[in-house]
Amino acid sequence: MRLTTKGRYAVTAMLDLAFHSQAKPVTLVDIANRQTISLSYLEQLFARLRRAGMVKGVRGPGGGYTLCGEAGNINIADIIAAVDERVDSTKCGGEANCQKHQACLTHDLWMGLSDQIREYLKGITLGQLLDNHHVKEVSRRQENDTHRVIEVHRHSDSGASATP
Hints:
Layout: H1 5-20, H2 28-35, H3 39-51, E1 55-58, E2 64-67, H4 76-82, H5 107-122, H6 126-131, H7 133-157
């Protein structure tokens, strides 16, 4: 299956946004810090997600991004498609030209697998992931880790010792 970091990062960033934008818009810097994703890469992904109508930007102080709809209405397959990623298990990209410009012996098998994966991802929403106990624990840990890093930087910038 060809699911590159683009699709994985888009899903991760959208889930982070779903968690943290419930109270206020979320900046890409915050998502980048929590998820250890390059800010410039996130900017590219969010431009595509914005064009797809999945997120909206809020300008000004306290600005950032929010989801355009309810987390329960945004499925994972749509997020992946929004960043121009294809879930495809074939060698030919689904074009049926894998062997001398025709379908190979196992083309239908790999097409069926791709369809199954796509249907699986369509059946999972951000809302369902938000409700997942393990996902909640990881999100809390990331939030705590990010706050600790910020505190260490504040202490080191002020000349105070960074150790507790």
